[in-house]
Amino acid sequence: MHHASDILLTIFIIFIAAQIGAEIAQRLKLPGVVGEIAAGCVVGPSILGWLQPAQIIPGSPLDVLAELGVVLLLFSVGLETRLDDLKKVGKSAVLVGVLGVLLPFGAGALWAHGEGFAWVKSLFVAAAFVATSAGITARVLQELGVLQRTESRVILGAAVIDDILAMLLLGVVSSLQGGGSLDVYSLLLTLGGAIGFVAVIGWGGTKVMRRQSGWLEAPISPHSALTLVLALCLGLAWLSTRFGLAAIIGAFLAGMIASETRQRDELEHKTLPLLAFLTPFFFVITGAKINLAELASGQALLMLLVVTLVAIASKLAGGFLGALSLGKRSATIVGFGMVPRGEVGVVIASLGLAAGVFSDRIYAIIVAMSLLTAMVTPPILAWLLRHAAPADASADSARESGQ
Amino acid sequence: MHHASDILLTIFIIFIAAQIGAEIAQRLKLPGVVGEIAAGCVVGPSILGWLQPAQIIPGSPLDVLAELGVVLLLFSVGLETRLDDLKKVGKSAVLVGVLGVLLPFGAGALWAHGEGFAWVKSLFVAAAFVATSAGITARVLQELGVLQRTESRVILGAAVIDDILAMLLLGVVSSLQGGGSLDVYSLLLTLGGAIGFVAVIGWGGTKVMRRQSGWLEAPISPHSALTLVLALCLGLAWLSTRFGLAAIIGAFLAGMIASETRQRDELEHKTLPLLAFLTPFFFVITGAKINLAELASGQALLMLLVVTLVAIASKLAGGFLGALSLGKRSATIVGFGMVPRGEVGVVIASLGLAAGVFSDRIYAIIVAMSLLTAMVTPPILAWLLRHAAPADASADSARESGQ
């Protein structure tokens, strides 16, 4: 009758750890998310071992809860974002997305080749330098209540483009690594599919919703509006994985579409308890994946330092140059906003380990770099946003976020 | 990067199936929960096969989501229940709990012995007739908005007692089956532990909360009240499994404690989106566990019919006799409210299968009986509640449930 006992204890530990971590971080004037990731590291296999490595592998119940948490987070960020706002920053977002992929990819490849990898393998390692994890930055922007700022919109738009390009790049380096020739036709097909998906869902969905948000009111159930858009969120999250994109891209688009409905405020309000319950799993489990043991040597730490600096500098440079038309201060914010690699770097590193490209140590270092960029970015971003004047007037527009 | 694709599709399917099932049921004037269970049977292994048997075993991600769903459901039911209300119906609840365990246990043992089981094995089979699943009834009562009625309070109080007795009974028959002698001392210790847990948490927790609900307002985070009581809910759900009770008992107590705080209405309101998102998993997966193939013979169907009638009649009789002081109409409502066996019968049947007591067919029949009682009860209960005058005035007291 009580098989659920162990998993309930683990869920309780994660939930409590997240609250304590967030509370401590906030008292230290740091974003709560830093505390949640740190709490994950503490309760994870590296320190206390209350979470076992087997409990946080892909497909495990905790991993699924984490995935739902980040999907709902990006959905709620989408709810606070309108297509028209993204369109206004379209050019900057595309530039940030493209440069923010090319510079880290180049820098990563150079670093890996310098470390003695053959060029083809270097490109695979470099792919782990590329993909921004929108979850971390989105949470910081949401925590600070600055999702309406121009910089935030550029970051969110660029994150979509970043994910499309990173997905393509991973396809290219995987096929090169597999010894296959580069099938340009199938790559173009993949690119076309991904762009088509985003365009059809983003533009088409928005248009449909603007005209007919009445259908959300039709059914009987009192929670119909919420359950219908949650279904939309889950459906698009899944569909975007079918186009090779991250689930959070689909969830973000679902939120953006839903933000065009009349029930927008109600939906935003009702999503908050879901975020409070589920997003801690994502951040705690992200932190739990840090393997401190593999890094317990001076040489490994030095390498980690170099890799992290390369990863930060190259992404920062790409984002900064792409957003320079907004002014240096805003460009810096955008640049740092793109820095966190989070779970995406972890997943690419896992693929590299499975493909035999990465050694255990390189794997641990890439994972640690991904998570380190996720840890150091939020405080910097929060500091910059608190001390920078808004780049445009809309930042002060009254936000009807319900608490 | 996209390992999450399959599980996201399954989650989407379950969520959509639940909404469609609930909608159809409500248009047929049936409780939504019947539609959700039926939808689970349709998408499950028996019919469409969109859910694989391996995806719904204990400990799988979907099973964990289902467990969280029913834990949150009983937490929210607890939020609408005050200890003082339960105390008023204490005698009836104890009588219903005790008779509602003894009669089905006796009837089940007689039936099993009649089917040719030795007495010791018959007692094990009989244990699967005993435990009421509070989740199904609680959902129906909540859907109809009648949690404040006397009958509802008797059912909820009796469900706690039922779970304690069922747990003890399972301990007894397991040790008899294992060939061990009956250790009365350790059984008394278990009983004392379970009653102590419920008493300390229920009485003590309520007293503490009445005096100091101010501590819920202390921390910084805007969701502090909600996250703190969610942590309480998860913690007590786990703790109650340590005392041999179902997780939902701890969750119910957590809700009951939290109902004494000043933030009660706010908490009730914020729990609704969590229920909307997570409880469908519990009911759909309950339905998916029905194995129609094992029942596809006239003989099996006849046996299922007999077992189900024995299970319903014995539980109904126990509940009816126990609650007779409320009048016949109310006693009938209480009796039917105790009928659903749901997942608890399934789990005991699994234990019996693992212990070699049950054949595959008996297992399938006990599981089907458990789920059948869960399916047939909600419409009867809803009909009785809609057509019966409230047993006391408090049923009409204004409820400030937020939608």
From TrEMBL, chains A, B:
Domain Cation/H+ exchanger transmembrane residues, every copy = 16-386
GO function terms (MF aspect): antiporter activity
Taxonomic superkingdom = Bacteria
Give membrane topology per the record.
Answer: Multi-pass membrane protein
InterPro entries attached to this UniProt entry: Cation/H_exchanger_TM (IPR006153), Na+/solute_symporter_sf (IPR038770)
One Gene Ontology term of the biological-process aspect is: sodium ion transport
User: Subcellular localization, per the record?
Assistant: Membrane
Keyword line = Antiport, Ion transport, Membrane, Sodium, Sodium transport, Transmembrane, Transmembrane helix, Transport
Per the record's keyword annotation, is Transmembrane included, yes or no? Answer: yes
| Gene3D superfamilies (UniProt xref) | 1.20.1530.20
Q: Offer one Pfam family short name for this entry.
A: Na_H_Exchanger
Gene Ontology CC annotation, any one: membrane
Q: What's the protein name?
A: Kef-type K+ transport system, membrane component KefB
Q: What is the lineage of its organism?
A: Bacteria, Pseudomonadati, Pseudomonadota, Gammaproteobacteria, Lysobacterales
Where do the TM regions start and end? Answer: 6-25, 64-81, 93-112, 118-141, 153-172, 184-203, 243-259, 271-288, 300-326, 338-356, 362-385
